[in-house]
Amino acid sequence: MGDGYSGPCSCLLNCVRSWRERDRLRRHTELLRQGDLFKRRTFTFGFGTGHESTDVRLKPDFDTVLAWRKKSEGDKDKDWHEIDLNDIKTVEPKGSASLVMSSKTGDLLLELEAENGSVRDSWVESLQAVAEDVRLNPQARMAQKSVKDRMKDQAQRQRHLAKRTIEMQQTKKDAEARKARYLKETGGMQYTALAMANRS
């Protein structure tokens, strides 16, 4: 272990470290969920033409996607642009209050300017931590479906189960009706019993 502890002490120490790491990651995720306003540089035909106020945050109920939109746009879901945190390779500070996100292929994903250096630094740290966690633990993050999605899946399973139960009951009822009709038409099981007796 390297700490000089063994047995229950090392286990307790590992639990405390794990709890601290989860708490640190939770605080970073919460900062990204709350979102913030940044200035995003706009381009026309490859030339920087100015800045626009941009709302940036994690997509609601889905901690693996960073969403952003112009502040002036309405509250429509379609106005949000999305970046999968798994696609982010680096998040680096730039200048006094800017940050740059690059993709795994080296392409510029997003360049933002915060209101000051401390906001920028906390966002750089949080984006790096959460993006790294998404890369290292993809199953854990994908398991965090929104409550709405989980309820929707559960409702679909219940509908399917109810439909299947009704189908099985109807199939059983039809089979019993066919059996009763056959027994009535053939006079019951008397001929079957005679045939079995004649075999021996």
What does this structure look like?
This protein is an alpha+beta fold and 200 residues long. Strand 1 and strand 2 (47-58) form a beta hairpin. The protein has a 7-stranded antiparallel beta sheet. The longest helix has 40 residues, at 147-186. Helix 1 (8-34) packs across helix 2 (117-136). The mean pLDDT is 79. It has helices at 8-34, 117-136, 138-142, 147-186, 190-199; strands at residues 36-44, 47-58, 65-70, 81-84, 88-94, 98-103, 108-113. It comes from Ectocarpus siliculosus. This is PH domain-containing protein.
Number of domains: 2
The strands making up the biggest β-sheet line up spatially as: 4-3-2-1-7-6-5
User: Which outline best applies?
Assistant: elongated
What is the number of helical segments per DSSP (H or I, 4+ residues)? Answer: 5
Between the first and last Cα atoms, what is the distance in angstroms?
A: 79 Å
Query: What value does the Rg take, in angstroms?
Result: 31 Å
- Outline the biggest β-sheet: 7 strands, antiparallel
Task: Please indicate the percent range of residues in DSSP E strands (runs of 2 or more).
Answer: 25-35%
H-E string: HEEEEEEEHHHH
Structural class, by secondary structure, is alpha+beta
Name given to the CATH architecture of the largest domain: Roll
Which ranges are low-confidence, i.e. pLDDT below 50, for 5 or more consecutive residues?
Answer: none
Proportion of helical residues: 40-55%
CATH class bucket of the largest domain: Mainly Beta
Q: How many β-strand stretches?
A: 7
Estimate the mean pLDDT confidence: 79
Q: Could you name the CATH topology of the largest domain?
A: PH-domain like
